[in-house]
Design goal:
globular; rRNA binding; 99 residues; 6 strands; alpha+beta; two-stranded antiparallel ribbon; Alpha-Beta Plaits; rRNA-binding
């Protein structure tokens, strides 16, 4: 059951200009993760899925934007983002992850 939980930790890679620059320069991958996970869960999931060594993990909560149409006001969901810094010599191919 623990392995099944680790497979659900990572939702998707966060693809943006900033994350692609971080991957090229500093060997950092940026991931969207489930809101309730801890750094240890993220560490185990990334190590298991990609077979890499991790140097450091930074996690932050991204608050949802307020969106409105005419008189209705709504909010997008909050989500968690993880910056995973890999040790030297390890790389991750994010193109295979998106499939």
């Amino acid at each position: 059951m623990y392995i099944e939980r680790l497979l659900k930790v990572i939702k998707a890679p966060h693809v943006s200009e900033k994350s692609s620059i971080a991957l090229d320069k500093n060997n950092v991958i940026v991931l969207k993760v489930v809101n309730y996970v801890t750094k240890q869960d993220i560490r185990h999931a990334v190590c298991m899925l990609f077979s890499v060594k991790i140097k450091k993990i930074n996690v932050l909560m991204v608050s949802g934007k307020s969106k409105g149409q005419r008189y209705n006001l709504g909010y997008r969901c909050n989500w968690k983002k993880a910056y995973v810094i890999l040790k030297r010599g390890y790389t991750v191919d994010l193109m295979n992850m998106e499939q």
